[in-house]
Give the backbone structure.
Amino acid sequence: MTRKGKFKFSDYLRQLRKMQKLTLEKAAEESGVSAGYISMLETGKKEYPTAKTLKKLAKAYNIPHDQLLTMIGYITEQEERSGGEKKDEDNSLFIFDLKGLTDEDIKDLEKQIELLKLRAQFKNIEKKD
């Protein structure tokens, strides 16, 4: 059982698919991962897909595969930023080049950032428990 408010990778994965406006079938077609398996990941019936599967899904969802590896906890955000070395946490400001992105792309990016902020809040709550 999960506690209320705990970050769920399954919900995050479902949200990514929906943000790309993909049905399960279309996501399966674009990723090469079966619709049934994607459904099991999104409902939490399967919790730990392989890195290879995450890479396929990331490509279909148009996000860097490291993002999914980080969100599920296979690599930490600090390790990702530092190339594997742990460093002191910082609150760096990220500046994005939005040239060439449509308004819809920018809105999707904003949603991604909000999801990451929400995940960080859940992690902080878990640490306090």
